[in-house]
Write a structure and sequence with these properties.
By secondary structure, the protein is of the alpha+beta class. The chain is 31% helix and 40% strand. Strands 1, 2, 3, 4, 5, 6, 7 and 8 form an eight-stranded antiparallel beta sheet that branches.
Length: 156
């Protein structure tokens, strides 16, 4: 089971980054346990975690939400399709979230390193991550839009 103390830094980092770079207040939905396999027509960003904890964080969202967040990050420039620019913006958003989370963990004397984000987009995706339990944290904002932060980490 994932220690709840390991979840809070991801929530805090995600809310801070989304507020500061997308100018959106994200509310936390009810976290839940989920399988480590994700399927759907969507965009997923996977970031590996090494150091005192090991595993992956997978940030999942619809293409529409990804375009909306990319547009917010680019100061309102319209983003109508999930092109390379939009994917790059979402990759950087994930990188900032995980970097901020790693900083929050370091304040608790837990040292983490993160891998560069991998972006997966398309129809009928099926992605399996580590064998550890996965906690899904929904972040809700703007007209029922949401992203899911799936945390699959365990102690070294």
């Amino acid at each position: 089971m994932v220690n709840v103390e390991y979840i809070n830094p991801f929530i805090e980092a995600a809310q801070t980054v989304i507020r500061d770079f997308c100018h959106i207040e994200a509310k936390v939905g009810k976290p839940f346990l989920t399988q480590a396999t994700y399927e759907g027509s969507t965009l997923m960003v996977i970031v590996g975690i090494t150091g005192d904890l090991r595993g992956q964080v997978l940030i999942n969202m619809s293409s529409e939400v990804a375009c909306s967040l990319a547009s917010h990050m680019m100061m309102g420039m319209p983003v109508n399709e999930l092109n390379d620019m939009a994917k790059s913006a979402i990759s950087e958003l994930a990188n900032m979230i995980l970097g901020n989370a790693a900083t929050l963990f370091s304040k608790k004397a837990i040292n983490l390193d993160i891998t560069p984000p991998s972006v997966c987009a398309g129809m009928n995706l099926s992605i399996s991550v580590s064998d550890s339990k996965t906690i899904c944290i929904p972040l809700l904002f703007d007209d029922n839009q949401s992203i899911e932060i799936n945390v699959a980490i365990k102690d070294k």
